[in-house]
Amino acid sequence: MVKVLAAIKRFLFVALCSFLFFSCFNILNRTQRTSAPRNTAYEPYTNDYNSIQFSRKMENGTAIFSAGYVDQPYIVKLSGKIWLCCYTWSNTNEGGRHETVGISRSNDSGKTWQFQSSLEEGSGASAFYGIPFANSFGRVYVFYGYNIDNVTTLNNKSIRTDAVGELCYKYSEDSGNTWSKRQTIAMPVTQYDSLNDWHGKYQEWWSICKPILANNELYFSFTKVEKYVYINGEGWVVNCPNINKEHNVAKLTWNFLPPGNTGIRSSAMGITQEEHNIVQLNNGGFACVFRTQNGYPAICYSNDNCNTWTEPRPMMFSTGNLMRHPRACPRIFKCSNGNYLLWFNNRSMPSKIWWGRNPIWVCGGVEKNGTIIWSQPEILLNSDDDAITMSYPDLVEAGNEYYVTETQKNIARIHKINANFLKNLWLQGKETLADTAYKIAEFSESFIESAFDTKVTFGRSGFSGGLTINLALNVSSNQKTSEKILSILFTGSSQKTAIRIETVPGGTIKMIFFSNTGEELLSFESDSDVLKPNSPNFVSFDLDASNRILTIMVNGVLCNGLGTDAKPAGWARIPKGFDFSLLSNYMIFHQFTGKTTKATLFNVPLTTTSLISQYQFR
To answer: CA 20 to 30 Å from 290, out of 33, 236, 556, 579?
Structure first.
């Protein structure tokens, strides 16, 4: 009996110790969990700048198809690793005779591509601007325009053959190996059709909007124009409520929205309102983006399934600054995480409305109260060949990876995008980014004052990829003339001035580049009136050597070139004659009518998002 009682006591003692141990462990674990971020999707990410610079290079993309003319490479993912891409192509030129819609396919998730077929004979009437859609039971549709009457002249003059035609589609049941007969969707004749050059006999229209599935129904938008060619445009939306469940195409229902005689347009937007493209919002509404020739893209919203739309207005960043964009395609994308991306060009010039499709910039969008709040922009793709243009993109998500397509009008490519780069874009301004590993020098106010007109040496690991210079400074309100304020970096060989920074009357700051022989290559100023007199200011000069881009941010706002001294853009091309690899580790500080309180150098070009973080946590 004594032994039994002793055993019971030992058991109870062990149980009590175990209970106390696991209780303490759970309390501690619960405390740790509750102190961690609750939404892990919004944890900050560290930038990999080598990866970002590599993915920015347009030439590093994978070719899908090339020809004399290639446009709108749009992709749908099918079963397994099969991706199908459709595009408009010909052996001649855009708008020429015998355009057709081509199909290429990848069997390895976009790594390699093989041409499959064309939807219409390339020797016949023109087919143009195909947009693909894969439904729930494996059928893939391609909607496209078809110049079924082969209209090639107007008033006895040759015209573009991709501006006139009917809305058609074909579908495939075997992942694009074979295609159905051509089907036609009758578009209503509306006011602009009746007023066009053919008085409604033929319709002028095209679409750049890949179909979306919203509420299990298909939607895509297109643009009609009143006069040849591309004069007075307006947007329309096609809706098919049963395409995701109906096998018999003869029973498909086609609706055109908004109802009535007038499409999506605004008298305030001018004669160019084109290339309408839509997304569904998280709240069930829709957003529509389109191009103008006023120097900015436009956006409007619908809260009743595309039946009515708000008055279109110019698109703006969250800072309130107007977005810059030429007469080019601004594409809006909705991602699986519920956030948005906008593809645009971040510059414009009224005298050259088509100009400026390189580099490509992107904004991240977050929905708030039924509208989209847009981040400040980042460079997505670039070619340092200024003659290159890129446009008509698509976005593909595969797991946690992002891809974009684009065309320079003769080569269609696909690019893998750094996922953390995009995640940081949606996080912009919310978290600090861990970029301290790239910091190579930091100078305090006392050090700067003690080092006026003296060569200051700092450690570095090369500037061949670029650099970032952050300045905290106060500027005197009575400044009358241009004053050198901060730095001169020297070349390693000739000791000639390489970069100089100066303040300019009117609240402006500029950067000047020199060749190794002392020749001035570029002088580029920030936006005017951005430096606050007799107040703390924070200025970042971001120099991407690999892509030859200079951006300037002042007090957390990226310059966009608008203001009293408007420029085509708020960024500049760094001349090819400037050699970053020759920059040494020397800097000279100069006294000026103000005060430099801090200077920090990084041996990489930071992203816009990181520059904002540097400002917020300065």
So the answer is: 556
